[in-house]
From TrEMBL:
This is Mannose-1-phosphate guanylyltransferase. The keyword Translocase does not apply. Keywords: Nucleotidyltransferase, Transferase. InterPro entries: GlmU-like, MurU, NTP_transferase_dom, Nucleotide-diphossugar_trans. Residues 2-145 form the Nucleotidyl transferase domain.
Amino acid sequence: MKAMILAAGRGARMRPLSDVIPKPLLAVHGTPLLDRLISQLARAGFTDIVINVAHLGEKIRAHLGTGAQLSVTVSYSDEGPAGLETGGGIRRALPLLGCDPFLVVNGDIYTDYDFARLPASLAGLAHLVLVDNPEHHPEGDFGLCDGQVGDNAPRLTFAGIGVYRAALFADATADRFPLAPLLHRMSARGLISGEHYHGLWTDVGTPERLAALNAGPR
């Protein structure tokens, strides 16, 4: 299975840090978030990795190159300076991801999730990892019942980790669009499975959350 890391976001909430450093290259205890994610993916057997780039994308390319130093092969999906949002970014990268189900993970999360536990095949169009709602997102994103994702309550937060089929994007016509509305539409049709992960997970979306991680245990 191939993996894609979403790294094209502007990181507006992380300013001023993200004005000069792409958010996925910000470090926790000296290791860039992107390097940590790639190392986790490699340990789980994901060695063919696609990374989308936009804002300061040249710095990500210069930092990672081919990925050889992290024992992976990296391909890049360039979205230009503005980026295509999450859904548009994945859709643009589909030729690099192939026909089999593929993993997509947000480049700005900090987690100990074992990517090897993800399903290699799907009955529907996607499988999402959900976590307990953090303080900054108490309303959650999706409900989960008997392994099926829906809009039922109570809701959990989407962890930014999912396995997708290319067919999920078959009806998408716009170049630039968010992923969440598409997932809600397909979950309403019973086409998305999910799991509830109870381990370490942080959306490193602000300087305060980054500072808290750096002040915590290694």
